[in-house]
UniProtKB/TrEMBL annotation:
Residues 32-113 form the Carboxymuconolactone decarboxylase-like domain. Gene3D superfamilies: AhpD-like (1.20.1290.10). This is Carboxymuconolactone decarboxylase family protein. InterPro entries: AhpD-like, AhpD_core, CMD-like. It comes from the Bacteria. Signal peptide: none annotated. Residues 1-20 are annotated as: Disordered. PANTHER family: 4-CARBOXYMUCONOLACTONE DECARBOXYLASE FAMILY PROTEIN (AFU_ORTHOLOGUE AFUA_6G11590), CYTOPLASMIC PROTEIN.
Length: 174
């Protein structure tokens, strides 16, 4: 039987993959009050929204924002919750693979992109109207809250270069 000490000192086979980058900053440790407030926002944003839709929103915004940590986390959480690999893989091209999503999900994805990018400085009326046609006002507020929170998390993750790959599904239960 191999001891822990032997295992820790066992020569490793070189990895064919690039080296993992270290995080730039332990944000939660350095600004715990803000981090706690973000967790509170996360809990509030997730409380009354469909969990599947919530994960789709998180994944799509994280794709746009190139937040590898959030992509890792939310893809794993979505898979653990029963989401299909196909729907997750197709999410970056949802306009071309509309048939994988419901009309409500499509409206939420369009709104997610509009709020995340804000290229023109506003959310187009037609995107908002489409979302409003599929969600009542309370639900629409919940979708907007979910989009806002994941965008904030993405900005923290990308700036601090939070390392993806180590997240265990469900580790941050909402």
């Amino acid at each position: 039987m191999t001891t822990i000490a032997q295992e820790l000192h066992r020569p490793r086979t070189p990895s064919p993959y690039a080296a993992e980058h270290p995080p730039r900053l332990a944000f939660a440790e350095q600004h715990p009050e803000f981090y706690k407030a973000m967790v509170g926002l996360e809990i509030a944003a997730s409380r009354h929204i469909d969990p599947t839709l919530y994960e789709l929103i998180k994944i799509r915004a994280s794709q746009i924002n190139n937040c590898a940590f959030c992509l890792d986390m939310h893809s794993k959480d979505a898979l653990a919750a029963g989401e299909s690999v196909q729907r997750i893989v197709q999410l970056s091209a949802w306009r071309e693979s509309r048939h994988f999503y419901t009309e409500r999900e499509l409206a939420a994805l369009a709104l997610t992109e509009a709020v995340t990018v804000l290229t023109d400085g506003f959310v187009p009326d037609e995107v908002y109207a489409q979302a409003a046609a599929h969600f009542d006002e309370a639900e629409l507020a919940q979708v907007i809250g979910a989009i806002t929170v994941i965008n904030a998390w993405n900005r923290i993750g990308v700036t601090t270069r939070t390392t993806p790959g180590h997240y265990t599904p469900g580790a941050y239960k909402r």
